[in-house]
Amino acid sequence: MKMMKRSKKQEKLGTKHSSIIVRWVSIVALTIMVSFIIFSVIIYSIVGQQSMVQQKETSREMVVKLNDSLNQIHGELQISNVVPALTPSARKILQGNPPINPDEHPNNAFNDDLLSSLTNKDLNVVVYNLEKEDVFDNGGVIPKFKQFKGNFHSETVYKGRRKELLTYQKVRDAHKGKVTGYIVVANKMSYYNGLMKDLLKWMIRISAVAIIFFTLIAFIIVRGIVKPIKEMSRVALEVNADPNSTARISDFHRHDELQELAVSLNQMLDRMQRYIDQQKEFVGDVSHELRTPVAVIEGHLNMLERWGKDDPEILEESIKASLQEAKRMQHLIQEMLDLTRAEQINVQYPNAVTNVADVLKRVAGDMSMVHKDFVIRLDMDDMPQDTQIQIYQGHLEQLLVILVDNGIKYSTDRKEINISAGLAQNEVHIIVQDFGEGISKEDQSKIFNRFYRVDKARTREKGGNGLGLSIAQKLVHSYHGKIGVDSVEGQGSQFIIAFPSLTKKQAQKLRERDQAEKAKKGK
């Protein structure tokens, strides 16, 4: 019960997952939001600083104009000497009269710079004497006096949600340099406050719209990316549940990494399916092939057990037949092992390098010695002696022995085997030619299949199990080579194999890797 509970708990944990779309879109939305906030803060700050500089300049100009008019007064500032010091237009404003009289020349009013500054509704101007008494102001809310250091002081204060700029200036007698009074200018900055309020409002709106818009775009893009992944996951789960499933990933009609991944996964699944089919075929063929020798041995042993052991002639015949079948089984098992090893070459011998000419000479000599009734010729005129390919030496020897032995088995009256090698277009071509029975067109496409024999009865007599050419093909393909056959019935066959040749630099690099790996294993 505890184990069942635990497995159910693990199953629940295994199925718990969060959506990639939600996570990716959340990350994108958060990134966009933070980016827009930072961008908005920067723009808001820059615009605010530039506008504040303009407002400070306006206040400072007002202070400078007033100071230029008042620093000519000798003694403490009073109403009696401040008002006459101002322009005629300014006096008219203080008296409640219009600044421009129709009877006067218009230039007299518009040339008065102080007039334009005093009529600015944002600026509240007040002049204080040394006793901090108001001796002049342009109306409105009078800013209070505040002690300050130095001749000039400026500060920003908040009135509710609005900013206000206060500027203070000491008025000094132009001749004696003594302080005669104070100028205070309060700038309500209506334009600045309105601008910053509207800017903030529009930035919030634009940012909200942009975040929503780009989040939708991100959702569409991410969903387009995740959709193929979901399809891959679905197919993987289906194949995992049923290894014999023919489900494959559909074409996404894309030209990107996901399409390449889908193609690779389909190729992998096809390869796995081939392995499964080959395994079933292999098990079935092996069972069939082993059934006959086992049945023969069992039959002879039963016969001997019943009555044959007392007959020396029957006993000898049964023992010979049983030994022959046992040897055939041993040979079959060895070929099966060779075939299994051939499928693991890329792991066992990834950096092997072999001189082709040396191996060809050795195999031709050995086969001539073993089969003295055959003439085995070797032609390497079209191949340099130092030609090298990426293959384990023992495997190239095994491959050549299989092809030569196959030619010898199927030879008829003309007992000749020709081995030729050449180098063309960076490929080493090796041809093993016999002059025997030949292979029909129909059988040429099947002879590399496991346990396939052209004439099973005759092949059994010759001692073949139908695995030799399968081993040869697997060896060639494992080393990125090609193998084919060209045959005419009654005239013979020639097997053609091709391997990519190595440059001296490539061969040296592979040898160095091989030595480095051996050194690692030695440690």
UniProtKB/TrEMBL annotation:
It is found in: Membrane. Residues 285-503 form the Histidine kinase domain. Residues 223-277 form the HAMP domain. GO terms for molecular function: kinase activity. SUPFAM superfamilies: ATPase domain of HSP90 chaperone/DNA topoisomerase II/histidine kinase (SSF55874), HAMP domain-like (SSF158472), Homodimeric domain of signal transducing histidine kinase (SSF47384). Keywords: Kinase, Membrane, Phosphoprotein, Transferase, Transmembrane, Transmembrane helix, Two-component regulatory system. This is Signal transduction histidine-protein kinase ArlS. It comes from Lactobacillus panisapium. The lineage of its organism: Bacteria, Bacillati, Bacillota, Bacilli, Lactobacillales.
